[in-house]
Amino acid sequence: MARELPPFSALRAFEAAARHETFTAAADELHVTHGAISRQVAAFEAWVGVQVFHRNGKRVRLTDDGRRYLATVQAAFDSIAIATEQLRDTGVVHVLRVNALPTFAMKWLLPRLNQFQRIAPSVELRLSTSNTPVETLENFDVAVRRGPAHWANCASGHFLEETEIPVCSPALLQRSPIHIADDLAKHVLLHSDTRPDAWRNWLAAAGVKAKCRKKQSFDHFYLALQAAVDGLGVALGPLPLLSEELASGRLVLPLDGPRIDARGYWWVARREVAEAPLVAQFCRWLESQAGPA
């Protein structure tokens, strides 16, 4: 059965105009005239029967329908580009070097990597972890860092929000219930050197008046989280990184809130490789995976 697809030239015009938010820049990229882009987009909208752009002078802005369609079109273009590259280099293994924060890699990225491997089976993804600033990082194509920040000579994009809320083991909660935030003063608070101000900010936001004097510190955040699983104290857990632990019951939320907005996660790609098909595909895949596992 033949697929009902719009003309490829119209799809290219739509995708380029959506990225640049102007028909003129899209025309320059595709080496056609402004009028050609305008006609192709208009013909595409007539073909699908849906308006995909709001026109405002020389600028164009995606409608909600257009924004949803763009994500699918870009993913398809990425897949076509990767498949074409693989066809040219049959038998060649394509390497993608990803450096991520340790806790993010363990709790969020690794549980999802099999999904990326299914759509990019010939890619050898070399994953390393560190808290090293991107500016001094070597031998990477894409890094995942908390931001926003200024990363020199890099392209970047935000893909995952994070909120922080106390978490603990159900056994700990049974031994010593936490009904209100002030009850935390009875517990050991688990700190991390990589997030030194997290508890102070949360306690201030919660309006805790009791003195929380008992604490234990760890050099890595994932150690503090594991200590919470093992019942050593209460950690300040990042959502959605702990979705698996909460779903399985290894960790519970002793309080309803407050949930403090933390620094979200950004992909950061070296500018010289940021538009390479494989790098672009991985970064868009990160964005597509930003929901719960």
UniProtKB/TrEMBL annotation:
Highest taxon listed in the record's lineage: Bacteria
HTH lysR-type domain span: 6-63
Keywords in alphabetical order: DNA-binding, Transcription, Transcription regulation
CDD domains hit by this protein: PBP2_GcdR_TrpI_HvrB_AmpR_like
GO BP: DNA-templated transcription
GO-annotated molecular function: DNA-binding transcription factor activity; sequence-specific DNA binding
Family: Belongs to the LysR transcriptional regulatory family.
Protein name, entry field: LysR family transcriptional regulator, glycine cleavage system transcriptional activator
